[in-house]
Specification:
By secondary structure, this protein is of the alpha+beta class. The chain contains eleven helices and 16 strands. The structure holds ligand 2P0. The site of ligand 2P0 has 14 residues, from helix 7.
Length: about 350
Amino acid sequence: MRSEHRVTSVRSQERGTAASATAVAHPNIALIKYWGKHDERLVIPRTDSLSLTLDIFPTTTRVQLAPEAQHDAVTLDGVPLRGEAQRRVIAFLELVRERAGSLQRAVVDTENTVPTGAGLASSASGFAALAVAASAAYGLDLDATALSRLARRGSGSASRSVFGGFALWHAGSATATAAEADLGSYAEPVPVGDIDPALVIAVVNAGPKSVSSREAMRRTVDTSPLYEAWAVSSKDDLNEMRAALHRVDLDAVGEIAERNALGMHATMLAARPAVRYFAPATLTVLDRVQQLRREGTPAYATMDAGPNVKVLCHRQDAGRVAEAVRGAVPDGTVLIAGPGPAARLLHEDGP
Ligand code: 2P0
C-alpha cells in the first residue's frame, strides 16, 4: 500500500494531474468509553478506551486534490457541508497539508451509511476514512499507528476505527509536552481468541442528538461531581476487560461494558445543566435486556451520546436477542452487527 502511494503521487505530478484516493472505514462501539478530554486541540482523552469495530454502516470518502481551487469543497451524501461540520473537515485537511507541505485544496466527497449525529459513531468512521484517503491523496506515507493518531485529530473515536475488531486507544500522558502527548495517544488492535460477539443495535431515534458529544463531554468534565470517580473506575474496568478478553469470557466483557456505560451516563446526568441522552424507549430496551438475562440469555447493554442501545451478546443468541428487542420497541429499527474490518484504501489514482 505504501509503495503504491508514492508511485501514484509521483506519476500524477509527472502528468500534471491531481492525485485522488478513496477509503472506506467502519464505525466502532466503545465497550470502555471515551468521555472527556485533556486537550481539546490535540484531542487527548482523559482515559483509555476500548472498542469493537463493526461490520455495518461503512463510510466511503474520496479525496481529490484540486490544484486550481481556492477553497476545499466538502460534501456529505452529495450535499455540501456547512458550519461546524465543514469547519472540522477543513481543519483536518489543513493538518494533512501542513504535514505534506502542500497548499493544494481538495474536493472531499463522503458517502455515509450510518445515520449522522445519532450516537452511532458516524464521526468515527468518517474521520478514519478521511485520514486514510487524505493522507494517500497528499502523498503521506503513514503506518496504521500514525493514521490512528491522525484520525484522532478529527474525532477521538476515529482513532479506533482505523483498526478492525477490538481496539484499545491509549490516552497518552497528560503531563507530556504537546508533541509527546500527540505521539502517545493512538489506538492499537487487541488480539482476541474465538469470542464470536454480536452487537444488536436498537435504533430508537435516528435523528441528530440534542447536545453534541464534544459539548457534552466538555460540560461533564467541567461541572459533574461524578466525573473523576468514573474516570478512576474506568481504569479498573479497562484492566478487568482486557483480562476478560484474554480469557475469551464474553459474559464478563458484557458486564463490564454495561457498568462502564451506565457510569458514563451517570456522570452526564450529574453535569450542570444535565446531559440526558436516554429516551423512554432507551429504558424499555434496558428493561428487556435485564429480562433476557433473567431468562438465561447473556446480553449486555451499552449506550453512547444518543438514545440508541447496543446489546452485546453471543453470536448464536443474536437472532433471539434482536427479536426480543424488536418486540420491546416496535417503532425502532433493530440491526445485528459483528466485528468489522480495519479502515482501508480502496484505490488511488490520477484522473
Ligand atoms: C466513545 N463517544 O468512546 C464515546 C462514548 C460517545 C460516547 O467517542 O469530540 O465524536 O470528536 O473526540 O469521538 C463520541 O465522541 O468526540 C464518542 P470528539 P467523538 O465512543
